[in-house]
Specification:
single chain, alpha+beta, Jelly Rolls, Arc Repressor Mutant, subunit A, 2 domains, six-stranded antiparallel sheet, five-stranded mixed sheet, 40% helix, transcription regulation, AraC family transcriptional regulator, DNA-binding
Length: 264
């Protein structure tokens, strides 16, 4: 049975953790990468994604839930998830391999994806688009071997330059795009996403642990532009409006449930 937690975690908080013997982290401008190898019979939680995620399952399973959709990546599969959403995840190791769970996670900013798409010189295909921000893809033997070749970089992150990490990631993306038209289409769809309406960003993240900087980033604006556009719509400051809405939300919870004030 999966061990779950109701606490919503921001992916930036995960990256803020120091590397451990179970989790190793690489960082550079526009990209962060995590290589995790643990033993677990099941773990679950809720995660707020501030960046796009590309996750490769080497051993075990990783299930992602968003709304009514459920996507499970098994051994030798990968999952691409768009940013600005809250997901529920369940992950477990392989029973016949001492419950080992091994995966690599890459968090990609828009600028890096945009650079890759320009280099790839991609021409849109006739693939039918989907509104689901999550997609699962197969990994072939060549890709699995390439991921194994990246492991030494996680062992000595302090000796790896940003330029080298960037080159290796671009090589990885080119390898994926060369053998998977649907994956390349998904990346192009991410690139074409328009600046979001402030109302949509606010409503989607009202109860999430996000800052004004986060909300501005998710809406595709600078902080000053976000504050200016917000005031033009709501005729008040973002902090005051959000505080009042959260208090109203907590009041509704108290009226409809048996939770305490602290829990609400």
């Amino acid at each position: 049975m999966a061990v779950s937690t109701n606490r919503l975690t921001k992916i930036s908080d995960v990256l803020a953790q120091a590397s451990t013997h179970q989790q190793k982290i690489l960082r550079m401008k526009g990209l962060s990468a995590i290589e995790s190898c643990t033993r677990t019979e099941g773990a679950a939680g809720t995660l707020f994604l501030e960046n796009h995620m590309l996750l490769f399952v080497i051993k075990g399973t990783y299930t992602v839930r968003f709304g009514s959709s459920v996507h499970t990546a098994h051994k030798h599969e990968m999952v691409l998830i768009h940013k600005s959403i809250v997901i529920q995840y369940e992950k477990s190791g392989e029973p016949n391999s001492d419950y080992t769970l091994n995966y690599m996670m890459f968090l990609l900013q828009d600028e890096l994806i945009d650079e890759f798409m320009k280099l790839a010189d991609y021409t849109p295909t006739s693939i039918t688009p989907t509104t689901d921000p999550i997609s699962v893809h197969k990994m072939d033997g060549r890709l699995s071997s390439y991921l194994q070749s990246l492991k030494p970089y996680f062992e000595e992150p302090e000796r790896i330059t940003d330029g080298l990490v960037k080159v290796k990631l671009l090589e990885l993306l080119f390898g994926l795009a060369d053998r998977n038209d649907i994956f390349l289409f998904e990346l192009s769809r991410i690139r074409r996403q328009e600046r979001k309406k402030i109302q949509d960003v606010i409503e989607a993240n009202l109860t999430n642990p996000v800052t004004l900087n986060d909300l501005a980033y998710l809406s595709g604006r600078s902080l000053s532009s976000f504050k200016r556009d917000f005031k033009a719509i709501y005729n008040t400051s973002p902090l005051q409006w959000i505080r009042n809405r959260r208090l109203d939300h907590a009041k509704e919870i108290l009226l409809r449930s048996s939770l305490s004030v602290t829990e609400a």
